[in-house]
Amino acid sequence: MWQNHYIKQYLWYLEKTYIIDMISPFSTNPSKELTKAPICYFKDIGLRNYAAGEFGNINDYGFVFQNFIYLQLSELAKRYDFSIHFWRTKDKAEIDFILQKSRNIVPIEVKYKSIDTFEITRAMRNFIIFLQEDSHFYKWEMNCICKPHYILY
């Protein structure tokens, strides 16, 4: 139990010294979602790679790319005033980023791979079902778009 306290304290210090950002889960019903742990993203990817012992030799391109997309989204969030969350269920369906501005939301899946054909993931299908069940609260339009990362610039 005491270890959990120290981890939270270290994460708090890392966030307050602008080394990491923590994003909270998107949830309307905490009993159905995993709300315990936020996801941490480094504000400096080079520092992340050094801390992971991967400086100059990256093993996990997927998470590094996801961290890069987070950094781009966080800059857009400052400019357009929206919040960034993630969504994860107990059966491990996960949406990498949920952008929310009042009752409007945009789910984003990040993939570091070449995509020849676009398909909706299991997590995205689950999220769509989740939103349809809570459609009285959220504005939801079904428009799935697959775009390369450089459109964020």
SSE pattern: HEEHHEEEH
Beta content comes to 15-25%
What's the overall average pLDDT, rounded?
A: 82
Main sheet overview: 3 strands, antiparallel
The low-confidence runs, each spanning 5 or more residues with pLDDT under 50, are none
Strand order of the largest sheet: 3-4-5
Radius of gyration over all CA atoms, rounded: 16 Å
| Helical stretch tally | 4
Overall strand count: 5
Labels describing this entry:
153 residues, alpha+beta, 3-stranded antiparallel β-sheet, globular
Short recap of the structure:
By secondary structure, the chain is of the alpha+beta class. Helix content is 35%, strand content 18%.
Characterization of this structure:
This protein has 153 residues and is α+β, with helices and mostly antiparallel strands. 35% of the residues lie in helices and 18% in strands. The protein has 4 helices and 5 strands. The strands form 2 sheets. A 3-stranded antiparallel sheet has the order 3-4-5. The longest helix is centred in the middle third of the chain and has 20 residues.
Topology:
Elements: H1 2-16, E1 20-23, E2 39-42, H2 45-51, H3 61-80, E3 83-88, E4 94-101, E5 104-108, H4 122-133
Antiparallel strand pairs: 1-2, 3-4, 4-5
